[in-house]
Amino acid sequence: xxxxxxxxxxxxxxxxxxxxxxxxxxxxxxxxxxxxxxxxxxxxxxxxxxxxxxxxxxxxxxxxxxxxxxxxxxxxxxxxxxxxxxxxxxxxxxxxxxxxxxxxxxxxxxxxxxxxxxxxxxxxxxxxxxxxxxxxxxxxx
Length: 141
Fold this sequence. Notes:
By secondary structure, this protein is mainly α. The chain has five helices and two strands. The protein has one domain (about 30-140). Strands 1-2 form a two-stranded antiparallel ribbon. Helix 1 packs antiparallel against helix 2, helix 1 runs parallel beside helix 3 and helix 2 (about 55-75) packs antiparallel against helix 3 (about 80-100). The radius of gyration is 19 Å and the shape is globular. The relative contact order is 0.11. The mean pLDDT is about 85.
């Protein structure tokens, strides 16, 4: 197509390629996305673990920064309820540590809007998927 004879080499099927912020690979499966999400949550927890931040700051970072980032990566796959709980458990444990309460406390008190107001990964993804579904069924195309 052109005058230059540049050599184009294909990536290995298991090797990821980042294009416009989206990670793509030719091998089928979603395990690489789940692994990337797990690493992102762990890196966020490791950043905040030893910082002097309040529980409300952790909730804000979770709700506004982490969830938006994860939603973008998880748009093309579906996670089960157990996978969402397992992935997001590190962030919940961090919140419990910052609030100085025991690890055995139920997680449902953190999602109450009047108390802490933390958005869980499963809750956020379901809301985003429902909103996307409503837009799709109401579109004219």
